[in-house]
Amino acid sequence: MKLYVICTVLLGLLILAYAEKTEKEAALAARQLLNSTIHAELVTIVSNTEKPDLNGFPFGSLEYITPDCTSNNGDVIMYLADISVEGEDVQRDGERVSVTIRDLTYYRDTDGPGVMDRARLSLLGTIAPIADDQVKDVESCFFKIHPDAAYWKYAHVFRMWRLTPKEIYWVGGFGSRHYIGWISVDLYQTATSAALVVKQQRKRRV
């Protein structure tokens, strides 16, 4: 029992030691979280002729994501169907979108801190289709992480899209232990993913 208590305390101290406290540390943690997460919530602005009363409302959808391997600057790649609500939205208005990326390790660690004490990252910016001369390279990176998505094009028309952040907001957990606030785009884009603040492996759950 004493050994368990000692180990628990040491683990807590280790977590605190790695907790991000500054904007720069949060930028590093944000890039690592992006690099270790396979899906996120995309929010678009509804622009729909079938439901005109909903135009202007935010619409959220779960999407596969990967970091943009062609630039390594923190842009986000998504593969969207033209016929989906979000696919139609971004074709009409790609100037106002956001994506929320969460630390999902709490799914595998039921004895650890709850979801509200886990890191999450909101990227607000613009989204545009990938240029023709970059599609092959982007697809290669994306389908390596999401091999099942390579077959979606046989059912519907899909396109690769790049979200470029203009504003970035980080919540590392509870504020007494983590940084909470806006992150400079320059800091985010130039940060490496070498920080050990967010310990999450890129692993698909079965």
Structural notes for this entry:
There is one protein chain. The chain has one domain (20-190): Pnp Oxidase, Chain A. By secondary structure, it is of the alpha+beta class. A hairpin with an 8-residue loop joins strand 7 and strand 8. The protein contains 5 helices and 8 strands; from the N terminus they run H-H-E-E-E-E-H-E-E-H-E-E-H. Helix content is 27%, strand content 27%. Residues 4-17 and 194-206 have low confidence and may be disordered.
Kindly list the characteristics that best describe this protein.
206 residues, alpha+beta, Pnp Oxidase, Chain A, 8-stranded antiparallel beta sheet, 27% helix, globular, signal, CREG_beta-barrel, Split_barrel_FMN-bd
Task: Summarize the model shown.
With 206 residues, this protein is α+β, with helices and mostly antiparallel strands.
**Poorly predicted regions:** 4-17, 194-206
What number of domains?
1
CATH architecture classification name: Roll
- The H-level CATH homologous superfamily, spelled out, is Electron Transport, Fmn-binding Protein, Chain A
Let me know the number of strands: 8
CATH class reads Mainly Beta
Round the Cα radius of gyration to an integer and report it.
18 Å
CATH topology: Pnp Oxidase, Chain A
Number of helices: 5
- The helical percent reads 25-40%
Q: Let me know the largest β-sheet.
A: 8 strands, antiparallel
Distance, first to last CA: 33 Å
Give me the oligomer status: single chain
Instruction: Give the overall silhouette.
Output: globular
Instruction: Determine the strand fraction and express it as a percent band.
Output: 25-35%
What is the H/E string? HHEEEEHEEHEEH
- Average per-residue pLDDT, rounded, comes to 84
Structural class: alpha+beta
